[in-house]
Amino acid sequence: MQRIPMQLPQKRRDGTFDIPDLSTLPPDGGEEFNRLVFTSSPYLLQHARNPVDWYPWGEEAFARARSEDKAVFLSIGYSTCHWCHVMEHESFENPEVAAFLSEHFISIKVDREERPDIDDIYMTVCQAMTGSGGWPLTVFLTPEKKPFYAGTYFPPDDRFGRPGFMRVLTALRDAWAGDRQKILTIGEELQSQLAGALRATEDELPEDILERAVDGFRGNYDSTHGGFGAAPKFPMGHTLRFLLRRAADTGDDALLEMVENTLLGMYRGGLWDHLGGGFCRYSTDSKWLVPHFEKMLYDNALLLDAYVDAYLLTRKDIYRTIAEELIAYVRRDMTDERGMFYSAENADSEGVEGKFYVFTRAEFDEIVATHADMLAEYFGVEKGGNFEHGQNILHIAVEPEEWSRRHGLSAADGEARIAAAKEKLFAARAARIHPSLDDKILTSWNGLMISALARAGAAFEDDTVTAMAEHAAAALTEHMLRDDGTLLRRLRGEDAGIQAFLEDYAFFALGMVDLYEATFEPRWLKTALTLSEAMLARFSDSESGGLFFTSTDAEQLLVRSMDAQDGAIPSGNSVAALSLLRLGRMTGRVDLAQRGEDIIRAFGAQIARVPTGSTVMLMAWDFARNPGREIVIAAESGSDATGLVKEVRGRFLPRSVVLLHTPAHSEALVALAPFAANNTAVGGKPTAWICRDYACEIPVHTPGEMAALLGD
Prior knowledge:
- By secondary structure, the chain is of the alpha+beta class.
- Among the domains are: about 35-195, 3-Layer(aba) Sandwich (Glutaredoxin); about 355-430, no CATH class; about 630-710, Glutaredoxin (3-Layer(aba) Sandwich), CATH 3.40.30.
- Helices cover about 50% and strands about 10% of the residues.
- It is built from 27 helices and 21 strands.
- A five-stranded mixed sheet has the order 2-4-3-5-6, with helices on both faces.
- Helix 25 (about 640-650) links the parallel strand 18 and strand 19 (about 655-660).
- Helix 18 packs antiparallel against helix 19 (about 500-520) and helix 25 (about 640-650) runs parallel beside helix 27.
- It is globular.
- About 50% of the residues are buried.
């Protein structure tokens, strides 16, 4: 199968502009800019030329709102959000709207990816008030930050069953002036509701919780196209990993088939970029054909994990191929010069969603040149188009082997013909204007990608992939981790800032655990412990046992929330629980394992109500309550241990932890995991010590003996 190309000509990116000499600008940005020009966020900078008198989130804006007795207009989005760009063009670039906002409101723009704490609170408000949410998130606040009206996208005029933005602004201006007490009452009531909604509710999970979650997914499964629910469909990598674990534990072939159909359906559809690699954010249809074309780092990290698991469980080469193509995309398009990973690529280029990715049939025929008809059949390219305006989204429209046979080709010849066409199409596409790049580095999302790359490198025995994870970890540690164990969240260029949130600590710690198992370098295990201890010190709730979203010294918002519900990314509490449980087993520290169990218990009632919404926490619960294996491989050198290490890494062992004890790393390892002092190479021969359910097997020395202990 064709590998994703590694090199591109010099990219021409959409949506970039040169930052002026900021020292020459007045505090409000001057005539050409607004205050957002002084920020680092790509999303905020996209709005720096709006005529709206924008403020970034901060006390200056709220102080002005209080002094001028104005309500606050809060707009939250992110740089690759299509409807955020639509609302910007329709409303925020409109001089009439800008003038009205400036006269009657104080306007604040927030990047949800930089400040998920603000987004979390006001998105909960929007969902409570309207029954739904999304971005752009539009909220109106009192100067004390209390919400009284919320929505998402508003068109400039009444349209789509939505009120026009100017009508909303006019009504809220009038209400602020004439019915202030009602507005203040709404704000007080919503703050009270938030305090209850964003708290943990402690309880033990029922014994059948895993089966209840699986049944929930079965009932929502699309047996025709794979995936769960109707359009739009989201590629939830962490959910698929949970279901793979249940299929492995129960031997349920039907459940495994559900996951495999989904993994293959996503890959064969337009959700996957068949020329450049990488998955888009979600599919707007049930068939995985028409994506929302933005590519997010976190989606690709979580899906890489899922395809690695599928490969380890089934040993099917297709899953390894997909994973390797995804890694090639990340290496080429999403990695900065220091080895860290960018946040996202936009859906739009030149003002049109998906323009970079699609082809008319005439363009396709001209580029491919030879065998165009049969290749159009393979990629589903139609004369009238399968997308808007006669354009085509490339996808695998036929079964490749059957397609090859029908055209009198061997499987190898068919693959070669497809590969040649991909190379031509990729080169032609590379000359286009590329979507804009959100080039900020987020600690949490980098932690997810480090974890996935480390696991892929180990599973595929590919040192170059493991090195990607190591380089990112070293750079992230240098730029974002302070000597006292505290973290920063965002880096753009050389500008590091924003206090880290729970997910930053939890995801980075998880990445360090996986990177230790991929490299057996004790420094990564030590970093995982440092991060975990700082996380527990800064985020713990002594009453419930859960972890708050924000640290003890963070800015105080309306409420200090905590949650275990997974969304597009897993919740910080879920990942924290799982990584603490793994660290507890790896180091022999019962206190860490106990804190992991405390976190699970803290959200028991919430999880029991909607088990399908907390699959990572269910993986943590399963890890805690079922006996796994602590495996210590001891040898005189790393090379001596190769056979035993390979035997472990080639298996699907989600409840196991693995350490390597060699003389070169003995002192550092024993300092972190004292029990490993007794696990040494017996008689100088490579030795595997395998413990399960608080009992250890007789040590073994060969991969075959180890395989017998590990079982099928």
